[in-house]
Known about the structure:
single chain, alpha/beta, seven-stranded mixed β-sheet, five-stranded mixed β-sheet, 12 strands, globular
Amino acid sequence: MNTMGKTVAAALIGAGLAIASPSARADENLEWASGSPGGSWFTIVTGLANIVMEKNPDINIRIVPGGGRDNPTFIENGISQMAMGIDFLAAAAMKGEAPYEKPYETLRSLGGTWAPAEFHVIVPVEDTRPLNEILSDPKLRIGTSPKATSEELTLQRALEFYDSSADKISAGGGTVINGTYTQLISAFQDGQIDVLWGAGSYPTGIALEVETGRRKARLVAFPEDLMDHFQTTFGYGKGEIPAGSYETLQPDGAAVPVTTLEALIMMSSTVSEETGYRITKTLLENQDKFGNIYKVLGKYNPEKAWQNQPIPLHPGAEKAYKELGYMK
């Protein structure tokens, strides 16, 4: 440092101002939109964010509630920089297809296979009707997660498939309510609703809580034609809740065929390559902790996570997958 530089530095130090070294990083604040409080996404995001912040003290992540349908909009509008997403909804947002009105250009992916989810439709054990009869009932009393979530959107589509809707149900004397998982469980146990419509990775919390409640209940299988419609029209998956996943919700112990979702982590293209790289690399290097956050995270597969994404990979994520040998 020349004499002039030393003089300036001394003056700054004397004034109580620190001189940052070239390698010092300024704190970065990010918002990560998850799912409904009490749901699997909220638990998963909390655990993953804590890993990132523990390993990167300069990255601060604020976790907020969200939903599969609204989270792409949060990113596109600059409200959140990260968000959980659903494969078919992320693809629709990127293309500007329903339920979105224009293409979303800022959506990028950190990869998938984080939290595959199965739809769980729960009814009182004495209701032995198949799902098509249940959803066609004009006096249906059903509850699902808040509007703008993937569960609520999927319920709308299922009702439409059976020539019904929330308005028709209301006119017929039934009801469709939206609430948090805690509110829905209470409403089901208290007899305010008779059908609980949700999604989560088995064994999901909402089903486990119903299982230990005072109202005996069972899971309902999805009809094949409804699953086919969801898959061919909207891009949902088809799967099952395996036999023995729940002690009492599967009275005969058999697997329950259901429509499924695949989750991905979305990041805004406005987040730097370096930040995207550091976050992705941190998660990839700490996979041994995933199973302690949520059981389904133990199935995370980094060899496949970057493949067949519905939106482009974030350049930072691509760099991390390549550096660690998962992406050739």
